[in-house]
Specification:
- This protein is α+β, with helices and mostly antiparallel strands.
- It has 4 helices and 18 strands.
Length: 296
């Protein structure tokens, strides 16, 4: 069995501002509209304002941070590669509802690790950037890459998944252990994939889980020792004994400590993986169950 932890022994910045894209969903029926789509409750909202939208087969298409500005007024912070697709997905389902969906470029997300080790998300207005010159804009591109690396490390520390284009439609919420964060509702009513998600919950038939794995970066092939090797997301990797195949749910990220970190979805925690024909020993962890004892 894998060790279980609330967070991984991984040094990350206490406060980060990930380069996510913001959408605003508002209008008299915005709350009801979103509640019919997302996997979590909106009222009462979970302690962690993290949620997602699935396809009818219960597989996640989007993950995002969902923060209320006021009643029926929400900000959604999602991956910069998926914000346009998410906006169109929502607009196609508005129909005659009194709901507006629009970019919210004047907002940013601040994520913190609190003193008790728990994650916290806060929406803040962006500072005025109208005075930036071209040189500053060029620097900001490098900064954006660093901020995305910091975001992945922060997610890895807190055992949180993140959907990007390469992982869309691959994983059910329980396979990413989102129920252990308290952000999966199985009885609030219908939403895309709810029947499958509820069946897995009540019958206990989910066999795959999210594992945080780490190893010495020096043991990897040179192609995989970049600070952020994103091309592995969604790809399969076999166990050394070929008893099972796992799937990458995150990039491989080389931390300053020289350790490489990544997330895998598998039935069992691997101890050895075949990376491009090379056997590599790994240590893997799974998030602890919630104190309420919800489904594993």
């Amino acid at each position: 069995m894998a060790n279980t932890q609330d967070s991984v022994e991984l040094t990350v910045k206490k406060t980060i501002q990930p380069p996510l894209k913001a959408l605003r969903v508002h209008g008299p029926e915005a709350g009801e509209f979103l509640n019919r789509l997302v996997i979590s409750e909106l009222d009462p909202a979970p302690a962690l304002p993290f949620t997602g939208i699935c396809n009818p087969k219960g597989r996640l298409l989007y993950t995002f941070w969902l923060l209320p500005l006021a009643k029926n007024d929400y900000l959604l912070f999602t991956d910069p590669q998926l914000d346009e697709a998410l906006k169109n997905f929502l607009l196609m389902r508005v129909f005659r509802s009194q709901v507006h969906v629009e970019p919210a470029d004047t907002w940013l997300l601040r994520l913190e690790t609190k003193a008790d080790g728990k994650p916290e998300a806060v929406a803040e207005p962006k500072p005025d950037s109208s005075q930036k010159d071209n040189q500053s804009a060029a620097i900001s591109q490098a900064e954006e890459a660093q901020r995305m690396k910091d975001y992945w490390l922060w997610l890895l520390k807190h055992h949180l998944p993140w959907i990007q284009p390469a992982s869309q439609g691959l994983f059910i919420p329980q396979q990413l252990d989102l129920q252990r964060h308290g952000v999966v509702s199985v009885d609030k009513g219908c939403y895309p994939g709810q029947e499958i998600i509820a069946r897995l919950h009540f019958l206990g038939k989910n066999k795959k889980h999210l594992y945080h794995c780490q190893l010495e970066a020096s043991s990897l092939d040179e192609k995989l020792t970049k600070p952020v090797e994103i091309s592995v997301i969604g790809k399969d990797v076999p166990f050394c004994d070929e008893s099972e195949i796992a799937t990458f749910a995150s990039p491989i990220i080389t931390a300053d400590s020289g350790q490489a970190h990544f997330q895998l979805v598998a039935k069992n925690p691997p101890q050895c993986l075949l990376f491009q024909g090379r056997k590599v020993t790994v240590n893997c962890y799974r998030r602890q169950p919630r104190p309420t004892g919800n489904a594993n």
